[in-house]
Amino acid sequence: xxxxxxxxxxxxxxxxxxxxxxxxxxxxxxxxxxxxxxxxxxxxxxxxxxxxxxxxxxxxxxxxxxxxxxxxxxxxxxxxxxxxxxxxxxxxxxxxxxxxxxxxxxxxxxxxxxxxxxxxxxxxxxxxxxxxxxxxxxxxxxxxxxxxxxxxxxxxxxxxxxxxxxxxxxxxxxxxxxxxxxxxxxxxxxxxxxxxxxxxxxxxxxxxxxxxxxxxxxxxxxxxxxxxxxxxxxxxxxxxxxxxxxxxxxxxxxxxxxxxxxxxxxxxxxxxxxxxxxxxxxxxxxxxxxxxxxxxxxxxxxxxxxxxxxxxxxxxxxxxxxxxxxxxxxxxxxxxxxxxxxxxxxxxxxxx
Amino acid sequence: xxxxxxxxxxxxxxxxxxxxxxxxxxxxxxxxxxxxxxxxxxxxxxxxxxxxxxxxxxxxxxxxxxxxxxxxxxxxxxxxxxxxxxxxxxxxxxxxxxxxxxxxxxxxxxxxxxxxxxxxxxxxxxxxxxxxxxxxxxxxxxxxxxxxxxxxxxxxxxxxxxxxxxxxxxxxxxxxxxxxxxxxxxxxxxxxxxxxxxxxxxxxxxxxxxxxxxxxxxxxxxxxxxxxxxxxxxxxxxxxxxxxxxxxxxxxxxxxxxxxxxxxxxxxxxxxxxxxxxxxxxxxxxxxxxxxxxxxxxxxxxxxxxxxxxxxxxxxxxxxxxxxxxxxxxxxxxxxxxxxxxxxxxxxxxxxxxxxxxxxxxxxxxxxxxxxxxxxxxxxxxxxxxxxxxxxxxxxxxxxxxxxxxxxxxxxxxxxxxxxxxxxxxxxxxxxxxxxxxxxxxxxxxxxxxxxxxxxxxxxxxxxxxxxxxxxxxxxxxxxxxxxxxxxxxxxxxxxxxxxxxxx
Lengths: 352, 504
Ligand SMILES: Nc1ncnc2c1ncn2[C@@H]1O[C@H](COP(=O)(O)OP(=O)(O)O)[C@@H](O)[C@H]1O
Ligand SMILES: [Mg+2]
Hints:
The complex is a heterodimer of chains A (352) and B (504).
Chain A (H helix, E strand, L loop, with lengths): L5 E5 L4 H25 L4 H14 L1 H26 L7 H18 L5 H30 L3 H21 L33 H18 L1 H11 L1 H6 L4 H28 L10 H11 L4 H25 L4 H20 L2 E5 L1
Helix pairs in contact in A: 1-2, 1-13, 2-3, 2-12, 3-7, 3-10, 3-11, 3-12, 4-5, 4-6, 4-10, 4-11, 5-6, 5-10, 7-8, 7-10, 7-12, 8-10, 11-12, 11-13, 12-13
Chain B lengths: L3 E10 L2 E11 L4 E5 L6 H8 L7 E6 L2 E3 L4 H6 L2 E4 L11 H6 L10 H14 L15 H14 L4 E5 L7 H16 L3 E6 L2 H7 L2 E6 L2 E7 L5 H9 L17 E11 L5 E11 L2 E6 L6 H9 L6 E6 L2 E2 L5 H6 L2 E3 L4 H4 L6 H6 L7 E2 L2 E2 L1 H14 L15 H13 L5 E5 L7 H17 L2 E6 L2 H7 L2 E6 L2 E7 L5 H8 L14
Parallel strand pairs in B: 3-8, 3-9, 6-7, 7-8, 13-20, 13-21, 16-19, 19-20
Antiparallel strand pairs in B: 1-2, 1-4, 4-5, 9-10, 11-12, 11-14, 14-15, 17-18, 21-22
The complex binds adenosine-5'-diphosphate (ADP) and magnesium ion.
């Protein structure tokens, strides 16, 4: 043989390397995006300072990071539940809008109730709406084996059309003519948590959701079933676990959590439904869940990190005059790097 | 002079020696059968000849010249063609397009001329096929003919067919054999891979028998008999386990009645299977791999739905029940494929309790302490070399099998289904599994042992049922059984005791 032979071998990465993955990811992302930043006539180090450090320095911008991360944590945890069970829900975006739609409606009828009651009713409403929107792709997947990646993705655009129809039809603002739903009642709004900040009670809801899902996944029999189905359908089925039922439940819970994300955006930030409610929180949730390694606590951390990235993208563009798109490019680059890391950590190159 | 000679070919996959210093010689214009059980190394040897694998050591000689076959392209240039078990055809294309594809890719193609050329080639080799037909519309047998034509069109002088009859119905087999005989007349050499004795006897001029990666012998077909071939194919050293005493079989525990089931492709895999397993006996199901054993095990385990027939566990009808219902009815089972019976990414403890999760949860919450204690206890009792927190996939094959046995046997099932329980295990682990099965028999369980290893069947079973093409072709008490007779039954040469429900 004229050239040395190499072989890819499948092995788990050593522990010390796993710990390094987030660091390597950051460094690689930095290197890959630097070129673009320089092209945008800015100093990459400075840019990254405004991107990742500056937002954490001030009280207002720090709270804004939490605001931004609230829907992201919720969609991240939603996607996590589905992915853990091996159900590839790409439809969190649509399920978020379903929850938002329910919240916008409930918010107008819940006049004069107490805040706790309103929260309880609307969390349930958002959850159920997201679940319903997740139901059809889930049934198709479980009973007819139709690929959920395709169907959940398609249902995302369907709900956007439905919402657009409603906002331009019955809910169109009679005075301004804007396609937006009527303001929700005072009672239905989520309480503010801090002065001079948009931070609202939805952040607490997100943290509670993370805690509950973490508990379910790691401490309950149902969680073990979810993990078993996701990690090895055949083995799970052989051991008597009802694979279809488990997957269906995972899909519905996932949809419900994404629905809650829609609710908190309507009741905590906008106070009405608009077509541009989400700049793709559902899709970012996929990145967040993946980056968190489908571990509920790590997913929450990665949700916070993405909240920082979103806030930072604005800081950096204001400070240095580079386009806000830089934030999106960074997110996308980071996703690719993470996916690469996840794939490559399972292999090792051996000379043979 | 030989067209192809393979000398001292060795090929290893990890720990498995698929080919161990194999010698193989092919004459011009002969049909040479390559006979051996599943896993004997037939496919590997031929994939080396066709350039799909590279041998670890050894020599390939074509027309008395040592050659290096690095890819199928090299093989084709040397006049070697292969039809693999999975066809490589493009369904929306026509037969003619498939035949010339990759062989002659000029930019402009005159389809009419090509079709005529393909047609004349088909005629020359007496292959009946319409060159303009779209491949998607063809039957499996016709697709196979396209593959053969593809190889011949590339001027193959050596044609390798890997288990070509596995996908064919009997009439198609006859048609295939006619084509092969015609090719032989034209001086083409055919290598015919099979594990079916009667087919090898019917079509081949010479036979090379492979067993456990070694070439046992090459002989003229006319000077041998099916029973001699059967012996060469399956004979192995016997194991050192002994059964104690006659079975105290008295009570039917598992009754299977006229069970039918399809395989993954929707073809019938089990045809009216009936048998009884009594308490305190081991019924061995013998047979060459691929005769319905897998489907039988899956149907009994509840992971495959039967199309008709009954499965009675202690007189309770369980046909079509789910795996968890089967477990609840007292039917324990280890999976045919160890990896498919557990979730490798979960821990040993998780896998241990997965079958009876409700016993280890309190109000939905996992009782971690109970799980740990239970697992520790079974690890000790079954001598599993692992910690409860190890990921199951990191265990060796033997320890995985122990884990699965422990999971099942801890519940003292009335029935134990054990398909290929020692496949791929080393001698020590094999003996361990054998002793466990005998212990279950002693305890009074009804044990169904499905195995392709005849010695294992003979050493453990009280009665032996033989499956061939999804049917039970006979049931014998173990003292009436010998390797030769079983070999003939396994290859479908003789069928006896058509009324397969055993009398005791
Ligand atoms: N690509 C492979 N990787 C690992 N093991 C293999 C591979 N191909 C074959 N084997 C192993 O080599 C042995 C011989 O297999 P094979 O040649 O397919 O047998 P046969 O065709 O006679 O049934 C088997 O134990 C099989 O599991
Ligand atoms: Mg083979």
